[in-house]
Amino acid sequence: MDTIKQAVMALESELIELRRDFHRHPELGYKEFRTSGIVKNYLEAFGIETQVVTGTGVVGLLKGEKDPGSADGPTILLRADMDALAQEEKTGVDYASQTPGLMHACGHDGHTAMLLIAAKILSGYKDQLKGNVKFVFQPNEEEAGALNMIEAGILENPKVDAAFGVHIWTPVPSGKIGLSNGPVMAATEEFELVIIGQPGHTSTPHTAKDPILAASTILQLLQSIQTREIDPLVPITIMVGKIKGGSGRNIIADRVELGGTIRFMFANEPVEKKILLEKFERLIKGVCEAQDVGYELKYIPSNPTLMNDERMVQVLREAVVETIGGPEGIIEHRCMAGEDFAEFTQKVPSAFYFLGTGNAKVGSHYPHHHTCFNIDESTLKTGVEIHVRTVMNMLK
User: Would you tell me which of 2, 207, 265, 341 could form a disulfide with 235, CB atoms 3.0–4.6 Å apart?
Assistant: First the structure.
């Protein structure tokens, strides 16, 4: 067994305990105060310089010491997200969330634990590194916090030359790694739509303007965009995730509020995205005019398409093969979920992969954002080792 694998195995119990501790204490985006405090203290304990960015984000900088001038070599960024979700956990595990209404239902607790252990191991190899490593612990991934960190300057001083990220992924079986060139996760536009009517009594509908009827028509017709107006070979989904309206069974509502997402993978994203959003609003406007109601539409900033750089994918592929013992465990995998690591891929050569953790025997087969979501903890050490080997291969 080589020294890297030995180092990872020696820290596996600490890795799992870190993950369980974060799991017990989930925090929403930009409220990860406990988590970021633990991260900062942990990194500083073995000599990594830290900086707090955008409130709860933490950036650790490990400078290589292979020879004079090592710190002037390439800088590699490794990123983990820290935020949880506003869901009530129903896993029943003994390390379940202790905060009512919050849980780690996406695996960010595992991401944070893996990167901490990788940082600890790499700090022991700094005399072999010709270059730097930035360990980025990002807040608010669920609502696109990456861009805020980039705007705060984390890609500079020293300038980042390559970035790598990972997502623990239950749709991929434990023992497999999803890794592909090009687009791997969809661009996302989140939207909030308000249909504005005129209230009245359900016995006299002609005296009111019914926003519920308009909303239901819009819900049906939105599906025609992706099935009738977009090339069927282009991945796209338009989904409404929430709807709220009305106060009584015999009252015609004055407004209906809808919220949802538009996800897509376009070859020419800026141009085709603009056309898509024009189609989206054209349909809404047409229905509202036909039913004589008003509307308000706004978009919530989200992420572009996550684009893997072919050269960085090859770097990751080599690290994966060394970790799992061969290429057989690597599979092509893409999905329509959004991931704000995409912001890094727009700025520097980057690669992102899926760490398979789907295993029904240990209850890790539920989809992400499910109240019973959990991970196969035996896969965590694989993610740590891939982090370490990626850096060693690029900076040794």
Answer: 265
Answer yes or no: is pLDDT of 176 > 70.
yes
Alpha helices in the chain (DSSP H): 3-10, 12-24, 33-45, 108-123, 146-151, 211-224, 269-290, 310-324, 342-345, 380-395
363: which 2 tokens? 């209850």
- CATH number of this structure's domain 187-300, picked from the four choices 3.30.70.260, 3.40.50.2300, 3.30.70.360, 3.40.50.1820: 3.30.70.360
> Does pLDDT of 252 surpass 80?
yes
Q: Examine the residue annotation and report whether 65 is marked as an active-site residue of this protein.
A: no
* Domains 3-185+305-395 and 187-300 in one fold: no
pLDDT tens digits, residue range 182-238? Answer: 999 999 999 999 999 999 999 999 999 999 999 999 999 999 999 999 999 999 999
167-181 b/e with 16+ CB inside 10 Å = b? bbbbebbbbbbbbbb
Domain ranges of the chain: 3-185+305-395, 187-300
How far apart CA 122 and CA 133 sit, in angstroms, is 9
Percent over 70 (pLDDT), the chain: 99
Round the average pLDDT of the chain to a whole number and report it: 96
Between CA 186 and CA 236 the distance in angstroms is: 8
Catalytic hit among 141, 189, 190, 377: 141
Q: Which of 83, 142, 210, 343 is catalytic?
A: 83
Number of other residues whose CB lies within 10 A of the CB of residue 119 = 25
Could you tell me which residues come within 8 angstroms of residue 88 by beta carbon, excluding any fewer than 6 positions away?
A: 100, 101, 103, 371
Tell the CATH superfamily of the 3-185+305-395 domain.
Answer: Zn peptidases (3.40.630.10)
C-beta separation of 183 from 268 below 8 A: no
The yes-or-no verdict on residue 121 having pLDDT over 80 is yes
CB 35 within 8 A of CB 25: yes
